Amino acid sequence: MICVCRAEDGEVFQTNATVQDIERCGKNLETFLRREIGIEEGAVLAYLSDGRRLRTDNLVDLTGMQDQVCFLLHTPYVPPHNTHMRRSSIDRPPLGIYFLHCEVMKLLHLQPPLQPPIDESVTAAPSFRPSELGASYYRAAQAQQQSIDRTLDSLRYQQSALRIACSVLDLRLIDVANIFDGVAAGARQELDRQASLIAGVDADLEMVSRVQIHRDFMSPAAKERWTRAVEACQKTHGDLQERWYHIEATLKLLVDSAAEAKLGLSNTRLLDEAEGLNKVSRDAHGKIRKPYPLSMVCHHPGPTASTEALLQDLRRSDTSIRNSLSVITELKNTFTERCLCTLRQISTLSNDLLVFASDLSALEASLKTKNAFSDIQRLHKMIHAYGATVIEIVRRKELCV
User: Fold this and answer.
1) Largest CA distance in the chain
2) In the prediction, which pLDDT does 395 show?
């Protein structure tokens, strides 16, 4: 059976459907998710536990997973904000995102599901039997321990969801970095070539002026045209150079921001505290469960010294479980908020990676575009071509002699 986990809060939905059931009914994945958990179509991204994207066309991949779990990212909860690749924007989300975050946290905020306090007034009754009160403590402990277990499981699922999101971000970052490396060498070489041509224009013009190549070549009108061509080249080169510096700085910012986002995955303090609370509550639960059968065989009516000691142990264990449930619920709320922030940051970085790849492709195309540099390239080669022509003429004359 397919198990669906919502990444934002770790809530798990156990369905009664298999992949074959979905395919047999002709439903797509989003329709199935809307029917099972009420998430509207087009507002969710689904991933397998190994980080692969899950879609309708690759549902069969879910059958090959041992855990049969798909993780859902509810995109309206974690929309990317337009950072323009600036550190200040990443640190301070827009006001609209902040208000949305507050609204989402109101929806996902949990209150500790504490059981009603145990009524011990029955101990004053002459017909009081310890088994009656022991049963009440046991039922409360059982229900609260189950709540603690569910909360801890949801924290683990949230941690797994963060791991998947970070791994997906890493893969996208690696892909973009590989594309950048493929473009970088050629881009730097082209920019260096342009800078060299611009720097050598004056020397090229001075050398050409010494040779009577053509009577109009160094006329005032021709010199003015060369001046305009050089200015156009300088402007183009400056623009391309600035875009390249921006590309390099952006990639570094994306790498650093991705490392910051992954800090939420490596920081397991809240999860470790929750594990500790679960251990404490289980110990207390065991103490309640252990004396309870013994109290069942106690048929002496009314409180005794032994039953009073037993009640003291029950009270302490009950208080311990209640405290553990309250604290782990607060940890859960804190972890959910951190999870939302991390997922939103990853969503923003993923969006920025798409923009970065587009900017890089546009820059690569601009570097390959024919422009005024072809003119000063011909100027640079002109004196060499003239010299080679003269040498060839002399050589041929020598052969004819």
Assistant:
1) 142
2) 66
Same-domain pairing of 8 and 109: no
Please indicate, yes or no, whether residues 20 and 125 belong to a single structural domain of this protein. Answer: no
Neighbours of 153 (CB within 10 A): 15
Only one residue has tokens 């071509």, namely 385
**pLDDT tens figures, 18-54:** 888 777 766 688 888 888 888 887 788 888 888 888 8
How far out from the chain centre does Cα 399 lie?
A: 74
Give the range of the structural domain holding residue 279, as residue numbers without chain letter.
Answer: 89-390
Cβ-based burial of 116 (10 A; exposed 0-12, middle 13-18, buried ≥19): exposed
Strand 3-6 to strand 44-48: parallel, antiparallel, or no bridges (unpaired)? unpaired
Instruction: Please indicate, yes or no, if residue 370 is contained in any of the structural domains.
Output: yes
Amino acid at 9: D
The structure tokens listed for 191 are 């920019």
Q: N- to C-terminal Cα distance for the chain?
A: 97
Contact 17, 2 (CB under 8 A): yes
User: Beta strand 12-14 with 44-48: parallel, antiparallel or unpaired?
Assistant: unpaired
Domain count, the chain: 2
Q: What's the predicted TM-score (pTM) here?
A: 0.78
| DSSP one-letter string for 88-126 | HHHHS--HHHHHHHHHHHHHH-----PPPPP--GGGGST
Question: Residue 353 belongs to a domain with what CATH number?
Answer: 1.20.1270
Asked if 16 and 141 sit in the same domain, the reply is: no
153-180: pLDDT as tens digits: 999 999 999 999 999 999 999 999 999 9
The CA angle 25-42-57, to the nearest 5 degrees, is: 45
Tens digit of pLDDT for each residue in 234-279? 888 889 999 999 999 999 999 999 999 888 788 889 999 999 999 9
